[in-house]
Amino acid sequence: MEESLQNLDAFFNPRSVAIIGATKKIDKAGHVIFKNFSTNKLHGVYKGELYPVNPNEDSILGFKCFKTLSDIPDTVDLIVIIVPGKAVPGVMEEAIAKKVKAAIIISAGFKEVGNVELEEEVVAIARKGGIRVLGPNCLGVYYSRTGIDSLFLPETKTLTTGDEVVATPRPMPGSIAMITQSGAFGSAALDYLTGRQMGVSKFVSFGNKCDVNETDIFRYLYEDEETKVVLIYLEDVKDGREFMEIAKKLTLKKPVVIIKSGKGSAGARAAASHTGAIAGSDKIYDAAFSQVGIIRARDMAEFFDAGKALAMQPPAMGTNIGILTDAGGPGVMTVDELEILGLTVNRFNDDTLKKFQDLKDKGLILKIAATSNPVDLTGSVTDDQFVMSADLMFQDPDINGIILLGLHHMPGLREKYIDDTVKVASKYNKPIVMCDIGETEMALYTRSRFDRLSVPAYGSPEEAARAMKALVTYGAYLKRNGTVGCIEEHIEEAKEEEKCAFAAATVQH
Amino acid sequence: MEESLQNLDAFFNPRSVAIIGATKKIDKAGHVIFKNFSTNKLHGVYKGELYPVNPNEDSILGFKCFKTLSDIPDTVDLIVIIVPGKAVPGVMEEAIAKKVKAAIIISAGFKEVGNVELEEEVVAIARKGGIRVLGPNCLGVYYSRTGIDSLFLPETKTLTTGDEVVATPRPMPGSIAMITQSGAFGSAALDYLTGRQMGVSKFVSFGNKCDVNETDIFRYLYEDEETKVVLIYLEDVKDGREFMEIAKKLTLKKPVVIIKSGKGSAGARAAASHTGAIAGSDKIYDAAFSQVGIIRARDMAEFFDAGKALAMQPPAMGTNIGILTDAGGPGVMTVDELEILGLTVNRFNDDTLKKFQDLKDKGLILKIAATSNPVDLTGSVTDDQFVMSADLMFQDPDINGIILLGLHHMPGLREKYIDDTVKVASKYNKPIVMCDIGETEMALYTRSRFDRLSVPAYGSPEEAARAMKALVTYGAYLKRNGTVGCIEEHIEEAKEEEKCAFAAATVQH
Known about the structure:
The first copy, chain A, is an alpha/beta fold. Helix content of chain A is 44%, strand content 17%. In chain A, strands 9-8-13-12-14-15-16 form a seven-stranded mixed beta sheet, sandwiched between helices.
């Protein structure tokens, strides 16, 4: 690992952490953050040393408290700073003496409110000591494997009724890196990802990004084995040229999906007063992202939907999609959306048409089923019909991916087709995404079962179509820029994961 | 009520119903439908007479069974036909003799599979006898107040594990009419609406619409007191001129949101093999809908989101929106989406800016809060700050509606602001929609509480923005075409409902 990455690594794998501004006062950020670390240490998740720093306390939650950072007898890799902005430079000076590698500055009151000089002072000190800084005005890092959790938002909240409820949950370990300039969007994303059972490899909120920014993080994630997909929320891009360079390298190795907000003039004004970002022309961003293979999401739903598809499925190696449905109307809606997105739903070639005709002749699927793409098995669908049809469609060399609309409302459909279809899909190096509409029991069961088997499931036809579009976009980028080996590796990896997920889910079942 | 509407009314308020093709066989449509009616009759929901018709049974579920429709001694208002297609003309001939007013033909095998003549024969017989026909190839009607339920999709399903789960739930009574050409989309919509707790006034699935079509239904819903908003899924429009005429009348009285699928060439091909629809040019539909004030949704999410907003809130009387947030990033995302949708987020006038400065001077809101629109109270938000700020913003004559981003992750925010903000909103004749991001406990609680208080809540900034756009679009249409009285009525109605919802929810709390 190159030197700059080694220091970045201290944010995720520190051997010792000091919390500057730790406190016993329950509602304070300095308490929440220290408690995150102390709980993780007691539970054996965080395995390093932990030092609370506060001149007014002797101990916090059973840990010996130090008056200052300098008082800590041992080395300190990472400091988390929660003291008021004007006290931060002093802490940073001490950090140089302690040979601290990395600092997360949670404190606000810097550039985002006009205090540019204070922020520049902090940066100058950090540079002098070779300390990498995350923030200020940020949430910092959540990394479940080593128990790093600098989020000042407690996992639960107590209502005025006295009820304790989940408020800012931490997601399970997984393969998605979630990177964000906005802390609020970050905490919302953690909540969303947890609820949708999407696992996270690394979470980083860098706020004002006075030092560590998207370019550094991309460099780190390029090497990070745990991360398969990068989701990033940005309001501006620093170091444009470097960013483009590393992005180009990164996207050939793993897909990157972005929300770049502050698009129009009013949005840019709002972004400026938020993280001090200068948003710049939106069209330039569009062109730049596309050039380096970053997939830009048009909204929050598409952001997470695309991330889920790219984390679970191989890229699509062409633009022609097969639709397999038991629901006519939603089938038409899917075709509509795919066409709007520039994909095709071409009529099958004669070979595939003939194979479907054979199934009809043998009475295996209904005579009234439409079988020229979309394949509409109608409300009389059975589990076996779905599985057989999916197999035929995957065999067609002109089909680059399948959208399966398995509306569970059809009386003859049981849950058996879910596992069986996934088994069929795992024989082919082509992506499949699915949709079932509804918000009650059977819909939730169906979608979550597919998700667990690494086939991304969506609640509307258009969401499924957009997820497929992301797989097509990424596939096209790899074809244009990547080597064949690189593409094959993506496909192999995704298929391997689907098989593992299948095995794991089957055991649990 | 004019005569044609009287016969249509027999679909919803029949004094007697005969189920032609009722059976004891548990998996058959004829069993599910008969059981729906018999259960509703036993529970006192369906209050009319009920007659199963099947030549091979003496009784079904305790009801005396008749060999033929003609054998029923009393009058029959409504028949539901589940027998095979070729037997339908015979049933319809009998229906003339029985002076039946309305027939729901569930049976498929007509125009959608090329049997045009059979369908025309049925239509000819119906015309001769003055019988109104819904279908064929449809789900028919669900009307909770009188217990009409011709849906052959059972509410629950038994998995292979032996577990019984909710599959096609029926939504609670409410003010949204859900009309659909696609049965599958209809059943999915029922599932979605139930899960999102959106109440339905009338559900109609008309499939091939050989007789009753969107024009008839619009005419009926124009008079229907229970329906406040119409959601309709169409693949084609019959009787274009009449449709435009009634739509124009209807939209001045209540908002109509449409999904018109079969947009491109492949979509149109898919629609043709689905309900035999000839989709026509999509741009013509766009222009026509806009001319008569029908709001066209770009996808399923927007369809339901717009419906919810229009059912709960008054239309917006201008295009300038105020944003009130505790989350900077999501605030910027909201501004972005509003700008893309052609709405504005203008800087407040001096008067409002001064009022916010006063709040800052008094220490009631943070000095670092952004208060020029968007109002970003930052992560240090409290309940009271939200309520005070909302009140100021509503007072501003240049603000036509408010999007409230209440991300619950902020530590100082409790649930108290929800009821308090709704109380403030109910003083003004302007719409408010809200967003909280997340999929775990506190997010679900927050959104559902707002929903119950008739403030529509959404899970992403862009969804909230699009919902507001629907309120703006409808307001602009009313201003262009309606009378002032008509607009005031909409506003009064919406506000009245919000107050009632508030009272009801408060009692339940």
